[in-house]
Structure formats: C-alpha cells, structure tokens
Design brief:
12 helices, DNA polymerase, domain 1, 2 domains, elongated, TIM Barrel, binds S-adenosyl-L-homocysteine, 12 strands, 10-stranded mixed β-sheet
C-alpha cells in the first residue's frame, strides 16, 4: 500500500500498470490531486466510482487534519497538523508582500538537541513519511497560494533525507503542485553527509546552514551535532557544495545575548564564512524559549555591530526578524506549547 501523496507524477503510470489498473487514468489522477487539490478520493468526481474504490484501497490519501490554528498579530498562522497515529507537527504560514511562505516540519520533535531550540529540547518521536510532509503543504493551500517553502519547522531534514527529498520533489514536480525549486529552502544544522547527496540531486533547491557559532568550542556547546561534524568538515562540505552546484549557501546565525554576540565572535564568523565561496549570512535575534530563560534576545546595537563587521568583510548579510512570536510560531518554538498542553488529535 502506497500513499497517494508519496507517489511522484512519473511513477503513477508504472505503478498502476504493475497493479493491473488503468494506467491511462494517471493524468486524471494527477489533476485531481494537484489541480483540484482533493482531500479524499470521493472528491475525484472525474474518475469512475469503481476506480475510485480501487484507488482508496491501493493508494490511500493521508488522513491528516488541522487540529488547531493560532494566529499571531503579524498575520503569521501556526497550524497544528495531526496524523493517524496521534502524533502531530506544526507548520507555519508567513504572509509578506508578494509572498506567502510555509515553514514545514520533517520530524515529530528533533534528535539534534540544539540547546536554544524548543523542538530539540524534547528529543525525536519519529520521522515523517513523504506523504505526511506533503500533507502539510496540501492543508496549507486552503489558506492561500503558497509561494515559498522553508524546511525550517520541527526536525532535521538531513536526518530524514529520503522522505524529505521525495516530498520536496513531489511539491516541485511540474505535474504536481509545481512550486519552483528556487522557492524551496532546505535548512540543516550541519549533518555533513547530506551536502554531497543534495548536490548530486541536480535540483536547484536553496540550502541554508544553521551555524550559530563561529568556532568549535562554542558551537559544540550550543549544537551537539558539531561534536560529530566539526566546523572544518562542515565548511569543507559547504565549499564543495557551492563548487559542485554553483549555488549560494546561506548561513543562519542566531545571535544570543552574552553567548555568541561579541565583536570577536563576529570577526571569527566573517573568517569562517569566507572559507565558503558564494556564501551569505542571515542574522537572526534569538527568540526566547521557555526552557532556557537564561538565553536572551540581543540588543539592536549588537545586531548592527555584527552586520557592520560582516559587511566590512564583504559578506552579503541580512538582518532577519523572527515572525509569529505571540503565537509561539517563531524560530525553534514549535511543538513545545502543545506538548505542554498535552493536546492530542481529536477523533
Ligand atoms: N534542523 C534544521 C531546520 C529546523 S530549525 C536546522 O537546524 O537548520 C530552523 C532554524 O531555527 C534553525 O536555524 C534553528 O537553529 C533556528 N532556531 C531554533 N531555535 C531558535 C531560537 N530560539 N531562536 C532563533 N532561531 C532558532
């Protein structure tokens, strides 16, 4: 049994043939799924009833539902998406001028344990299957036309590489939702083997790397993944990626007051980033998380000092705002509140 939302458009014909089903219906199926955005097979009224019954049996549409919507004063909406087994993840919809960005999750929780991140503070329950990642997008479409996807929700995409990639390829597919590859950004905390794999895909997804510290001593404290793949290896993998793909890498640097916010840190960051040709930096002020009250948001002047140091090193740098704060939808805040409230899927 394969889930409908995990099958790539070009796979439908052979899969139908394999099962002795009418393969000429593949295009109709794709239109129902990704033009009409049906949520259950019975809505595919262009298909004969008996065929729909076969589809239901052989290729069920993922039973995922929006359990809760919280809206932030800045228009950001956070959806809690529940799956059949009672697990849930969060996905965030972020409106901006000319854009409607969706932040999607790839795992229930996260195993990476970054100390400033709410998802990381709870460990990982399980990885999502491709159809469950696609389901987040399908449900989000009811709130508007999604123009961009960032894989920056719960989970580490490179720790769930195959399912994440299948989902993104599907969303990108011309006969699928057809969202442009350059509008899809994958973010990793630095799981090094993922870089070469992504480069070999030959797809122009954008890649972000969560750096957050400029040297091994500090980075290993903040991000345990650095003990497995230290900065030398990480930056080498980044450089190889940009060389192979001719694509830019964006380094994310979350500034935490008194932790990684000194001028020395900014200078070390500039030196580190310079090792990667075609790199840019996003500076993000920490969004406070309840499990680490000692971690504070930096002052504006600190952000500007970082910006100044990086710009003077001729590194393309952006100051980012964290969106969705009052709905607990900001960076790294996903999941925690719902877990604390012990919210479960309603049946
Ligand atoms: N695992 C992936 C993607 C998920 S996290 C990764 O690490 O890149 C998305 C981004 O939010 C990462 O850059 C992460 O480090 C950042 N983040 C986590 N907690 C944060 C916080 N409290 N404040 C600001 N950014 C945070």
């Amino acid at each position: 049994m394969k889930k409908a939302w995990s099958i790539l458009p070009e796979e439908w014909k052979p899969i139908l043939t394999e099962r002795g089903m009418r393969a000429f219906r593949a295009d109709q199926i794709l239109q129902s799924l990704y033009r009409d955005y049906i949520g259950v097979w019975d809505e595919a009224t262009t298909l004969p009833k008996d065929f729909r019954e076969d589809l239901k049996r052989e290729f069920p549409i993922t039973a995922a539902e929006v359990l809760d919507v919280s809206e932030s004063s800045d228009g950001t909406k956070k959806l809690l998406v529940g799956f059949e087994d009672g697990n849930s993840v969060e996905t965030v919809l972020i409106p901006a001028t000319g854009r409607f960005t969706q932040c999607i999750s790839t795992q229930v929780g996260c195993a990476m344990g970054c100390v400033f991140c709410a998802s990381g503070s709870q460990g990982v329950v399980r990885s999502l299957a491709a159809d469950e990642i696609v389901a987040q997008y399908m449900l989000a479409r009811k709130f508007g036309e999604i123009t961009n996807i960032v894989v920056m929700g719960m989970g580490e995409p490179f720790a769930n590489y195959d399912e994440t990639m299948r989902a993104l390829k599907l969303i990108n597919a011309g006969k699928g939702p057809n969202l442009g590859a350059r509008h899809i950004t994958i973010s990793t905390c630095g799981v090094v083997p993922g870089f070469a794999r992504l480069a070999s895909e030959g797809i122009q997804f954008e890649l972000s790397v969560s750096l957050h510290a400029p040297n091994d001593a500090l980075r290993s404290q903040l991000m345990p993944v650095n003990r497995r793949w230290p900065m030398d290896e990480l930056l080498e993998a980044c450089a190889a990626y940009t060389k192979a793909t001719k694509r830019i890498i964006t380094f994310e640097y979350t500034v935490i007051k008194g932790v990684n916010d000194s001028r020395r840190c900014a200078e070390e960051l500039a030196t580190a980033v310079k090792r990667v040709p075609m790199a840019k930096v996003n500076l993000i002020p920490l969004s406070p998380v309840s499990h680490r009250p000692d971690f504070k948001t930096p002052d504006e002047s600190t952000m500007l000092m970082f910006l100044d140091v990086l710009m003077k090193s001729r590194i393309q740098t952006m100051l980012r705002r964290s969106r969705g704060k009052d709905a607990d939808a900001a960076c790294g805040q996903l999941r925690l509140r719902n877990l604390n409230q012990n919210k479960t899927r309603k049946e």
